[in-house]
Structures are given as structure tokens and as C-alpha cells.
Amino acid sequence: MGDAFIRHIELLGYEKRFFPSQHYVYMFLVKWNDLSEKVVYRRFTEIYEFHKALKEMFPIESGDINIESRIIPHLPAPKWFDGQRSTENRQGTLAEYCYTLVNLPHKISRCLHVVNFFKVRHDDMNPVTDSQIKKPEVFLLLKDSKKNPTDITGPIVLQTYRAIADYEKSSTSEMSLKAGDMVDVVEKSENGWWFCQLKNKRGWVPAAYLEPMDGPDESEEQEPNYAGEAYTVWKSYTAVEEDELTLKEGDTIEVIHKLLDGWWVIRKDETTGYYPAMYLQKAGEVNTSVKNEQRNRSAPPRRSTIRNVKSIHKRGRKQISQETYRRNSKKYIQNQRNMRGNAQNKANVIIEKNEPEDNKPKAQPAVPPRPSKDLILNRCTESTRRKIL
């Protein structure tokens, strides 16, 4: 196997810490060539020292010899006092810096200096905190923050969820759970994998194994969209459960209900069923690097397949049957109306065809002309002749 290198670095936000004294650290999600994903924490002063050393290693690419040859991105020096405002304002610059850094020529982006700086350290896995003072405050960077660097959340307290059953991780980027564990959710992905932290552990966890503290989580899910939203299958899947669908890459379907566990209800022709959301993309969109990475990942487990569930809520989650999905489908309703309309039209045609025979008026007998007086006198009986005399 080749040397390790970084495929992508994403700035998640920053933390405001209070031990041993108040300071700020940036949170980076680092994705490696072995498909592992790690969260690391770095102060800005560390990042700037890393940047200066990188420029010294590559004087041509840093523009020291010829400014027109510079490809290493710029990074402003730290201020004498870095407060929260400067920490916030730097996020857009840092996000762009990391994106450019990873896309530099391999001799720079894959050099040991870059690889070692973003490797997981002991304090990344075991951050120094003191709950007696104050819990760190987390500020997450929004998805569209590149357009507006000051558009951030916070301060926030991460949502706490409870594990409803034991979960054993299947890759190094995931995190194992025991029933009853309380985790803080850092990122919720619609593919059913959530990035969580538990004390000094961090990793991806199936959303199906988590429940909020105040009740079942169907209130967080969108309502069904029975009109349907056009999507394309970009990875084939063979159904395992009876209510799942088997589809091939390139199939066009309609999504009618997006569920938190990453298993969406879709419609293919007149059939509905569950399908992994991570294998779908909106119609007309192209494959992104993130989706290409997901080809090698398995779909998260479904809630219905979890055994030994230990929920703290008496009321179970609201479930909708596939028959309900099908009957409420706009396409199903329209087809039913079309069928009823066709049946009515057919009946009308039959009635129209039968109407000339059934409703045709019966023929009346012809009335013969009245005989003349001479004819009656010559041919009729005596009694009849008397009536005209």
C-alpha cells in the first residue's frame, strides 16, 4: 500500500475553550486516502507556523523567487490578540486555504510536512477540558459560508441524543456505542450517518441508533411529498427486506419521503419501497467527489432491523405502511381517476350504442282511408247502410 495522503480537508467550525485558559481552536474534518475520516483541532498560531515552514520548503511555489510563480495560497498573520471576532472572520479564508492546499501538486499536497500536520494527535482524541470550569462552546460553519464568511452558528450547545441499542463499528471512521450512551451530534447527514462525539471519542454513527431525549424523532422528519421529487440512481442496490426496492444504476425514480435514518421511500412506476439515500442524486446533478467516495461505503442500518432496542419513550415512532404511501401517491390517485374516467366513458359509449334499439319508438299501425258513401251502400250490410242514411 502506498504512502498516506489527504484527499480532502473541511473546516467544520471552531471551539471556544476555557482550560487551561480561554482560547480558540479550529475543527477540521480530514479525509484520507484509505477512506478514513478524522477530526483534528488546531490553533491558528499553529496553522500559521505550518504555513511559514511550507513556504520555506517550496520557495519557488511560494513566490519568493518570482511572485508570478506563486501557487501556495496566502494566509494572514495572527493578530497580537486573537479574540472571537477575528476567529470568526478567518473561517472563510481558512476554508479556501485548505481547499487550495489539497489541490496543489502532489509534491506539496502529499509531502510529509502536510501529512504530519493534519495527523491525529493525542490531544485530538483526548482534548484537555475541565468540566469544573466550563464546557467548551462549539461554533459550526454553515455550508454556504464561503459566500459569507461571517455566516456561522453559535454559540451553540450540541444536540444530545441517546443510543437505543449497542452498535459495533465496521470501519475506523465510525464509533461504537452501547445502549444508553449519550452522544453530542456535530453533523447530521441526510444519508443516515451522523458525526458524533462521546467524551474523548468521535466518529460516524447510524442515525437509526439514536433517539432525542424529549420524544420520538419523527417530528424532525419532513412530511411525505406525494407529488414526488425526481432523482437518479447512481449506485445499484439489491433489496434485502420485503419493503425495499432493487434498482440499477441509471434508473429514474421519485422520492416521496425523506427519513432521518437515510432510507428514503421512493416510487418506481407504480411500486413504492425503501432505498438508501446515499445511492441517489437529484435528477440533472453530476457526481461529486463526496458521492464517489460513498460508493465504497455501505448503507446505514435501518431502524426496523435493530434488535434489543431499549428506548426511554413509551410512545413508539409513527410508521406509515407502503400501501398508505402508494394510495396517497399523486400518481396513484391520478391513475385511479383516469381509470374511473375511462370506465365512465366506456359505459357512455355502450349506452349510446344501445340507445337506438332500446329507446326507438314503436311503429304505429297505418290508418286506412275512410270508404266512400257509394262503396258502403254497395258492399256493406243492411245495418251499416242504415247508419249513413
UniProtKB/TrEMBL annotation:
Domain of life per record: Eukaryota
Record GO terms (molecular function): phosphatidylinositol binding; superoxide-generating NADPH oxidase activator activity
Keywords: Cytoplasm, Phosphoprotein, Repeat, SH3 domain
PX domain sequence ranges: 4-125
Biased composition (Basic and acidic residues): 352-361
Ranges where the SH3 domain occurs: 156-215, 226-285
The keyword Metal-binding belongs to this UniProt entry's keyword annotation: no
Segments of this protein annotated with the region Disordered: 352-374
Claim: Cytoplasm is one of the keywords in the record: yes
Entry's Gene Ontology BP terms: respiratory burst; superoxide anion generation
Recorded GO CC terms: cytoplasm; NADPH oxidase complex
InterPro entries recorded: NADPH_Oxidase/PX-Domain, NCF1_C, NCF1_PBR/AIR, NCF1_SH3_1, NCF1_SH3_2, P47PHOX, PX_dom, PX_dom_sf
Localisation per UniProt entry: Cytoplasm
UniProt-recorded name of the protein: NCF1 factor
